[in-house]
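#onboarding

Welcome to the new folks! Below is a worked example of what a typical request in this channel looks like: someone posts a single protein sequence, and someone else replies with the predicted structure as tokens. Don't worry about understanding the tokens yet, we'll cover that in week two.

Example request:
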Amino acid sequence: MSPLSPSVPISVPISDHEKLRCAEREVRQRLRVYGRLVQLGHMRQQTADREIEVMQAIAEDYRRKVGAPAPEPAAPAAERGLFDPLEP
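Example response:
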């Protein structure tokens, strides 16, 4: 059985701080990747926006639970040079 299988019990409790770090990391990942997926036609912009919004809400829930400040807003992926626009 795979260690990532949903049927494997978690042996050590996962803290709210760990959940927050994971959710924030996932938000950053989605911000980096989804723009490119939209450009390539693999994802609709509306879907990308909603998926990012949902994960940001999860991170905010955990931020409130642990009393952590909100992170500074990230620049859009294109401004950070994480992907090149498609050529015409």
